[in-house]
């Protein structure tokens, strides 16, 4: 008896591990899942009152005021907001998609992150609504395009972000520099900044995507727009001289100590702390940095932006996707909420904390002076940011390649070959 | 007679039902999913047999690295964390002044969440402004200052140091509880017989702590096999995927890449490995148990 009890005890202990790790319906979801979330809207189709559940990032603080305003204007629509961090939101959405408990509406990024829900038939097709409600006159067309998959509009455009170079005016003035016009000038400035005792590039590599912002600019420079687009769409081989040149630059910049010490493991929150007080000269950030500068107690007047010396700018969209399983009443209420919180009235009211809206004709305030210049840079053309353009497995391989090149574990040529192999593996797996 | 036989099962039934529902059945479902290529939401799953397992072993270098890291972590936990826990328990079991305060100090980190601990230690390891390098510089050891989390060869060990600080409280408390159940008589007899302290430890404390060791070893082993939060929060599996453990790679495969089958296969590896170690261990120790 004791022997069997021992064996059973062992099995129970061991299976307890899986309880924490299992990936099926038994997987745990974390974060603030609303107890009234899921598809309650569909269940209340005939009811007079409708509840709309919304999942959004926890730093989008403006949403609380906007939802309160909406509820006052629409007393028969109750809105329940659940907030998450970046990775918890991605995880919660995957778990909810798996267990068919997605909320009525959720925030998501464009590209390969948002496409998962659209391509698997989990989002509402908003094409007709977009046409009926004249979205092309309300939202930036680029944002609508980036919310469209397989010809179907799959989300209400929310943000349109442009990512490019930010510099510290204090450092640039001290070193007598001005925004570079050519790539050669940019590289010369990096060395001047280093020689002047400053960190040239305040970028942390812990999560991969901050160094990726430099990688993609270098790739745009060496490959040119056409090949860059082909690489991102996996229609060209990554084992290409332009990719090798890009990785060579990552290695060169690492060896010349253009990044903060130990940059491969540094969180961007740590790296950017060298930029704010003027210990570092440059960083690559998006339109949201004005808000972060203000929040950190620094002045936006002390910083400026310039366009990396390439033709196009890295851009990405964010959107609100709507659950495709809602009934008509819930769908109407959810679309109403989505259009309301992205309306010009709401955006202008909360503009200082709203981010970079996809909504047209917005009035920016002096608190975010660099948003418009960054968006203007994108008018000549943009390329979709790499971690949304590529499948996530390939993105992870790119992050690994960046690290291994910087650490000298792979040569730039090996990195290009490994990227090519990852792309081919992905293609062969997904083509059956 | 029948009622007497049924009684234990009736008592255990509520807990057993919950356990079967939330742990055992999902675990079986995870095993089932590990034989499919599935993204978690598509209406159809492609049956691939053992291909997910084979791919992990023969094609996924990160998986093998993660497996090796888990083994290292387990060995480290069973020796260093458990060893320090036992040592502190022995010290704090003595009648020394302020021992209750010390017990609180040593146990305190264990009540913090792994993510909080990771945040604290990440900043301490910051290569430019961190406490560790500043301390080394202040005592003239600036040559020892490193980018602790940026070197693939030492990053996992740097995380493990944080895990020691965090985790040593658990074995400490369990060993302390075990030590306090040991009566004073054998020690007094040993003193009369002229035994030295290490002899008393070896011949009295250790044998009488057998039951505690069963629990501590099992808990430590399970915890170290499923370690995740502190590694993920401190390094994200990097640099260059060098600090991934099985649970973090399973998270990446499942939630980032939507490879439910592969993520499930990693979970099954975790359970198989743990069972291989735990079953003989619990069987053997229970057989020799006093109860």
TrEMBL record, chain A:
InterPro entries: Bact_solute-bd_prot1, SBP. Gene3D superfamilies: Periplasmic binding protein-like II. The keyword Ligase does not apply. It holds the Pfam family SBP_bac_1. The keyword Transport applies. Residues 1-19 form the signal peptide. Keywords: Signal, Transport. PANTHER family: ARABINOSE-BINDING PROTEIN-RELATED, OSMOPROTECTIVE COMPOUNDS-BINDING PROTEIN GGTB. Belongs to the bacterial solute-binding protein 1 family. This is Sugar ABC transporter substrate-binding protein. It comes from Paenibacillus abyssi.
From TrEMBL, chain B:
GO terms for biological process: transmembrane transport. Residues 67-283 form the ABC transmembrane type-1 domain. The keyword Transmembrane applies. InterPro entries: ABC_transporter_permease, MetI-like, MetI-like_sf. It is a multi-pass membrane protein. This is Sugar ABC transporter permease. It comes from Paenibacillus abyssi. The lineage of its organism: Bacteria, Bacillati, Bacillota, Bacilli, Bacillales. SUPFAM superfamilies: MetI-like (SSF161098).
């Amino acid at each position: 008896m004791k022997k069997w009890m021992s064996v059973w005890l062992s099995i129970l202990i061991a299976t307890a591990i899986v309880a924490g790790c299992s990936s099926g319906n038994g997987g745990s979801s974390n974060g603030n899942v609303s107890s009234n979330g899921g598809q309650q809207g569909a269940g209340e189709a005939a009811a007079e009152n409708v509840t709309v559940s919304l999942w959004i990032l926890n730093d989008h603080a403006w949403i609380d005021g906007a939802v309160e305003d909406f509820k006052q204007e629409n007393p028969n629509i109750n809105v329940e907001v659940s907030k998450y961090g970046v990775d918890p939101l991605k995880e919660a959405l995957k778990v909810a998609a798996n267990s068919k408990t997605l909320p009525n509406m959720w925030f998501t990024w464009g590209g390969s992150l948002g496409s998962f829900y659209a391509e698997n038939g989990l989002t509402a097709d908003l094409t007709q609504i977009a046409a009926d409600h004249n979205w092309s006159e309300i939202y930036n067309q680029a944002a609508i395009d980036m919310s469209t998959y397989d010809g179907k509009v799959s989300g209400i455009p929310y943000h349109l972000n442009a990512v490019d170079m930010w510099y510290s005016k204090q450092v640039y003035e001290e070193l007598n520099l001005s925004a570079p016009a050519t790539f050669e000038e940019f590289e010369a400035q990096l060395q001047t900044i280093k020689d002047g005792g400053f960190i040239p590039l305040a970028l942390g590599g812990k999560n991969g995507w901050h160094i990726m912002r430099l990688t993609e600019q270098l790739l745009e420079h060496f490959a040119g727009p056409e090949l860059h687009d082909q690489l991102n769409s996996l229609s060209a081989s990554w084992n290409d001289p332009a990719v090798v040149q890009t990785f060579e630059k990552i290695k060169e910049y690492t060896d010349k100590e253009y990044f903060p010490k130990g940059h491969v493991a540094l969180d961007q929150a740590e790296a950017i702390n060298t930029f704010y007080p003027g210990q570092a000269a440059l960083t690559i950030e998006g339109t949201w940095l004005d808000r972060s500068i203000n929040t950190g107690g620094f002045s936006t007047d002390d910083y400026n932006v310039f366009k990396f010396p390439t033709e196009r700018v890295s851009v990405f969209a964010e959107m609100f996707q709507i659950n495709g399983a809602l009934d008509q009443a819930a769908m109407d209420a959810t679309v109403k909420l989505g259009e309301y919180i992205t309306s010009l009235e709401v955006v202008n009211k909360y503009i200082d904390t709203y981010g970079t809206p996809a909504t047209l004709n917005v009035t920016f305030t002096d608190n975010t002076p660099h948003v418009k210049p960054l968006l203007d840079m994108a008018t000549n053309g943009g390329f979709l940011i790499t971690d949304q353009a590529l499948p996530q497995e390939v993105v992870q391989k790119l992050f690994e390649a960046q690290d291994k090149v910087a650490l000298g574990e792979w040569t730039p040529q090996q990195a290009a070959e490994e990227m090519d192999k990852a792309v081919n593996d992905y293609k062969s797996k997904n083509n059956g | 007679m029948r009622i007497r036989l049924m009684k234990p099962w009736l008592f255990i039934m509520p807990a057993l039902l919950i356990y079967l529902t939330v742990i055992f059945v999902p675990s079986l479902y995870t095993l089932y999913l590990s034989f499919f290529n599935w993204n978690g939401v598509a209406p159809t799953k492609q049956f691939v047999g053992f291909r997910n397992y084979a791919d992990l072993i023969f094609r996924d270098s990160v998986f093998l690295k993660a497996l090796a890291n888990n083994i290292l972590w387990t060995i480290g936990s069973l020796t260093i964390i458990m060893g320090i826990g036992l040592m502190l328990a022995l010290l704090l079991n003595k009648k020394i002044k302020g021992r209750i305060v010390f017990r609180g100090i040593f146990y305190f980190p264990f009540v913090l969440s792994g993510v909080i601990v990771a945040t604290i230690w990440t900043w301490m390891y910051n290569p430019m402004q961190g406490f560790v390098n500043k301390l080394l510089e202040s005592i003239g050891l600036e040559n020892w200052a490193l980018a602790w989390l940026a070197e693939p060869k030492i990053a996992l060990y740097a995380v493990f140091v944080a895990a020691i600080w965090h985790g040593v409280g658990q074995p400490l408390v369990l060993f302390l509880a075990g030590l306090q159940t040991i009566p004073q008589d054998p020690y007094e007899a040993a003193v009369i017989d002229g035994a030295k302290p290490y002899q008393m430890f070896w011949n009295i404390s250790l044998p009488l702590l057998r039951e505690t060791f069963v629990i501590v070893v099992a808990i430590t082993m399970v915890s170290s096999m499923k370690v995740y939060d502190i590694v993920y929060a401190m390094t994200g599996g990097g640099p260059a995927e060098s600090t991934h453990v099985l649970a973090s790679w399973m998270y990446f495969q499942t939630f980032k890449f939507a490879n439910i089958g592969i993520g499930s296969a990693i979970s099954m590896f975790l359970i198989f490995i743990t069972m291989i170690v735990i079953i003989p261990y619990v069987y053997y120790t229970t057989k020799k148990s006093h109860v």
